[in-house]
């Protein structure tokens, strides 16, 4: 299972991480599989909602369905699964210190010219005396995201977002920006 540690991830391995622990490889593999599933469900829901009722309808998907999918995935997998960002729409998605540090690291990597899509980072940390494996994967901004996260929102979308998220900071993104990240953790 050690082979699942690709070079892209190895370069992100922090000093002091669980290098010698046999369980890290499978945990990374599991994290990636959960992210893939989460992303797949979200994308499917978003696309069909956009098709059937346009972005206003799809806002509802992001508002209700995204947290529900995250909750369901957490329940199914035994992992804590969520999304976070340095520029938040929903304050419930706020990063903790560790997540903020990783998001800043991703921004620095992007500024150094690295591609956003494969960016990931993991580490075994100690929280309240308990060892916890944590994993994050960057989420790039794509074309479809601009309808709700870009700088040229339709008046209807802008009004709906304003109603649901009066403190919204997640606008003005451009294609290729880091919109945020998936964040996973599991007590060991
Ligand atoms: C139809 C509107 C809409 C579209 C299109 C959309 N989003 Fe969002 N996005 C939202 C809403 C609404 C929320 C707040 C969800 C919540 O309450 O948890 C959100 C939240 C997020 C978050 C969680 C962090 C935060 O700011 O609260 C991320 C990450 C995110 N979106 C990424 C994306 C990406 C990447 C795309 C394109 C693939 C995308 N979104 C497309 C409306 C949209």
Please describe the structure with a list of short key phrases separated by commas or semicolons.
Beta-Lactamase, 18% strand, 188 residues, globular, 4 strands, 4-stranded antiparallel beta sheet, alpha+beta
| Number of DSSP E strands | 4
- CA radius of gyration is 17 Å
- Let me know the average pLDDT: 87
Q: How much β-strand is present in the residues? A: 15-25%
Helix count, per DSSP? 5
Question: How would you describe the overall organization of this protein?
Answer:
The protein is 46% helix and 18% strand. The protein is an alpha+beta fold and 188 residues long. The chain has one domain (21-187): Beta-Lactamase (2-Layer Sandwich). The longest helix is centred in the first third of the chain and has 54 residues, at 24-77. It is globular, with a radius of gyration of 17 Å. The relative contact order is 0.17.
Question: Nutshell version of this structure?
Answer:
The protein has 188 residues and is of the alpha+beta class. It has helices at 7-10, 24-77, 97-111, 146-149, 155-164; strands at residues 80-84, 120-127, 130-140, 178-187. The chain has a single domain (21-187), classed as Beta-Lactamase (2-Layer Sandwich).
Write the layout of secondary structure elements.
Elements: H1 7-10, H2 24-77, E1 80-84, H3 97-111, E2 120-127, E3 130-140, H4 146-149, H5 155-164, E4 178-187
Antiparallel strand pairs: 1-4, 2-3, 3-4
Helix pairs in contact: 2-5
